[in-house]
Amino acid sequence: MTTGSAAAQRRLYVLDTNVLMHDPASLFRFQEHDILLPMIVLEELDQHKKGLSEQARNVRQVSRHLDEMLGSDADLEIGLPLPYAQGRLYFQTAAYQATLPEDLAGGKADHEILAVTLALQGMHPDREVILVSKDINLRIKGRTLGIRVEDYHNDRALEDADLLYTGVDVLSQDFWEHHSRDLDAWQENGRSFYRLRGPAVEHWYPNQFIQLDPGGEQREDFSAIVRSVAPDHAIIERITDYGSERNAVWGIRARNREQNFALALLLDPEIDFISILGPAGTGKTLLTLAAALQQIFEEKRYAEAIITRATVPVGDEIGFLPGTEEEKMQPWMGAIEDNLEILSRGPEGAGSWGRSATQDLISKRLRIKSMSFMRGRTFLEKFVIIDEAQNLTPKEMKTLITRAGPGTKVVCLGNIAQIDTPYLTETTSGLTYVVDRFKKWEHSGHITLRRGERSRLADYANEAL
């Protein structure tokens, strides 16, 4: 490996196997800095290349990237130029000598990576050598040995989950004093519109909700949705009150302002993609299913609903599941079935026969699908629900959303505080990724639900336990 003044200014990153398995494009994410792959990393990649899992596909993609860069006349001693970056890629071409503590001796892959990093620090005292790994325990071991270690940050949609777009802008009590001077108002097809100008308008996004600060004495409960944003003005629309009985959606009424916002998005034919975040009990699934049934049976807007979810167990696996695709997915769909029981009760006084008829009618228009068979499909005029979306990677999320054909609405539900997938965090989840990337698109909407509506027992348990 060559050294010099220019090379000394560049950092040398040693990549752990899990970084490449998590993001096959990580090779090109280190800008002007250099990368070294230890021999044990290549060996681990070879061991994980078989299979149909997302990790196996990522490993095969890494192998293809390496094959494209190697070519027939590549000189490994001077490194390979990295496409889309200014650094070079190096491979471990010789045995590096480094002494590890006796407790870390042996042939364990993590320890060999630590040994290589320690050896590189001794070989290049003028360079900053950094080990990058998604493995927390490996990073702790590295720090105890005096190695500079880092997590892989380039896959983060944003730096802090608390900064994630909520879909709502709470207006100050003096909002109208600064924004009512050039106010235009009009009615169109029974809907109320306003054109506003002022400093707050610059920070709004399409289909974002605005509401007056609930604190203080307000003459009216004002809430609206942003329909369009221009450099000097925004057009907003008063939204329907879905908390009233006459505006109930498949018998379901909004119990709070955020649920009202969610129903406004779900029932809007101009919005093709919706993301709804919130902890358990906030009504994400119930509201989405009610809106789906309303638009399938009453408004005839969609042919049927497609329901899928990430099948990541919270505890131990329950083993082999017999039956068809839908039968195998049934154990994962308990939350969907619980809500369908509420929605399929039928009219009051209809009795057991009426409930049975309603359930049969609904079941014919709901399809439960596994994510394993989504690749290559196209959904036309479907209402697609992706449940537990926080357990999906950005790449998996892209695969699912791009299945949408003309006339299809996609709704992603999840809680980024309950991620069960290894190596995914609140800032790297596919759900966080789509919320951040779609917020500026005029045909998408997002809302974060915060208030639980299950029972006083569930509310107290969330606070006390």
Question: How would you characterize the overall build of this protein?
Answer:
By secondary structure, the protein is α/β, with parallel strands linked by helices. It has 3 domains: 5-150, 5'-nuclease (Rossmann fold, 3-Layer(aba) Sandwich); 161-238, no CATH class; 250-464, Rossmann fold (3-Layer(aba) Sandwich). Helix content is 31%, strand content 18%. The protein is built from 15 helices and 18 strands. It has helices spanning 5-9, 17-22, 39-47, 54-70, 109-123, 136-144, 175-179, 257-266, 284-298, 325-329, 334-343, 351-363, 394-401, 430-438, 456-464, and strands at 12-15, 34-37, 80-81, 88-91, 129-132, 148-150, 168-171, 184-188, 191-196, 209-212, 223-229, 234-238, 273-277, 304-309, 366-368, 382-387, 409-414, 444-448. It has a 6-stranded mixed β-sheet. Helix 8 (257-266) runs parallel beside helix 9 (284-298). The longest helix is centred in the N-terminal third of the chain and has 17 residues, at 54-70. It starts with a helix and ends with a helix. Residues 313-318 have low confidence and may be disordered.
